[in-house]
Design goal:
98 residues; mainly beta; seven-stranded antiparallel β-sheet; 7 strands; disordered N terminus
């Protein structure tokens, strides 16, 4: 399942990631949700793209205006894809958008 949500682009937001018990993630500063399914979320944040991988992932809460996303499920890893990882990101995006 792929969805595309756009947040408020007019204001500068802070970016925080809070994980509780490796089961719940609350993320602020989300500009848009590029894609998501039960194993991976790809978010564009004010500090770059963030990939979250896990098992049985679900979007628990989405507040587009405030740029807040909550995800529940078993979290395996969080990876930022920024300019220092452009080659890795290119490979990642090419796999995602085949």
């Amino acid at each position: 399942m792929s969805q595309h949500y756009e947040g408020n682009k007019g204001s500068v937001q802070e970016h925080d990631v809070v994980m509780r018990g490796r089961r719940i993630l609350d993320i602020t500063g989300v500009k848009q949700v590029e894609s998501f399914d039960s194993e991976e979320f790809l978010l564009e944040t004010v500090m770059g793209f963030l990939s979250i991988r896990g098992q049985n992932l679900q979007m628990k809460n989405l507040d587009v205006d405030k740029g807040v996303v909550s995800i529940k499920g078993k979290i395996f890893d969080l990876v930022y894809l920024d300019e220092h990882h452009q080659e890795k990101a290119k490979g990642f995006f090419s796999k995602l958008f085949k």
